Amino acid sequence: MKTTKISINELVLDFNFYPRGESEQCISMIHVKDIMEAIRAGETMPPITVCKDTMKISDGFNRYFAFKNLKHKTINAVLKKYGSEQEFYLDCYEQNRKHGLKLDRFDQVRFIIKGLEMGISQQALAQAMRIMPDRFDALLRKKTTIDKSGKIRALKGTARHYAGKQMTDKQLKGSEKSSGMPALFYVNQLINILESEIYDVENEAFMEAIKKLDQSIRRILDEKEAPQKGMAV
What we know:
This protein is an alpha+beta fold and 233 residues long. Helix content is 50%, strand content 10%. The protein has helices at residues 29-40, 61-69, 85-98, 105-117, 122-129, 133-142, 169-177, 183-195, 204-232, and strands at 4-7, 48-51, 57-59, 74-80, 144-146, 152-154.
């Protein structure tokens, strides 16, 4: 396809269509820095893909930030015509699925939920994801929760026991901030650090975090023991 040089200032980042997150905070700056290093070393980056009518990027958010951080004024792009917002949404996912950082289960479920809200058929969503219908159903059943308004939300593995159940705003925020591993994984990681004595007591931030952790653990244990004490009485 024809490549055109586009002014970086003309481009639009719409995170409503970005498969890997809903804000700039979801951009992996480690990946962006790797791209920047490659550009400085003389690597030619593939063109980004842009909607011809809206100038919204459908593929190439990380490359956009890399070129922008390097103070480039222009970037190579393929201008693409889309027939609808739904078509644009599907193509954003399909292009990002093929390369770059791997789309995880949380990304997949968010894509499904928003796609259904936009009126896109399950068949079209499954086709863009390259998954079978039974896998599609399993993701919705095992990887979603419900917020206080009754809306279906994507669920990370850390809170997998809430699948199909309602969560508070606080719980949802905590789940989304986690990397997705089971809670026991993080506990065991911390136990390993403490028992191996590979922590730094001179690190003030670490010691403050440990104090906060101590308070949280005491609260959890107190809540667990309270019903048992009541039964004993």
